[in-house]
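Note to self: keep these together.
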Amino acid sequence: MTVLNSALTQSLAGIPAGAAKDHGIRLGQIAASRIIQLRAADNPDLAITPPTSSAVGKWRITPPNSPPGIAANSRYLLPWTMHTKQVKERIYG
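Structure:
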């Protein structure tokens, strides 16, 4: 968070003080808050349990103790750009 706050301060430093800057900052805060609300249900820390099947043709973890894969929980995330009916309902109510 410190890195982001520092980058924000540096990027805003070159913009002259005034109503336009204040309004831009407020708009950015509103947009960021809304994005955080939309992404709150993504649950990026969701633990994915790898399958344990030993059946022919089924995926198995590769020893020793391999993780289930990178971003295995991404199928549960709200898409950033594809707006299906379900996504629109989640975003717009």
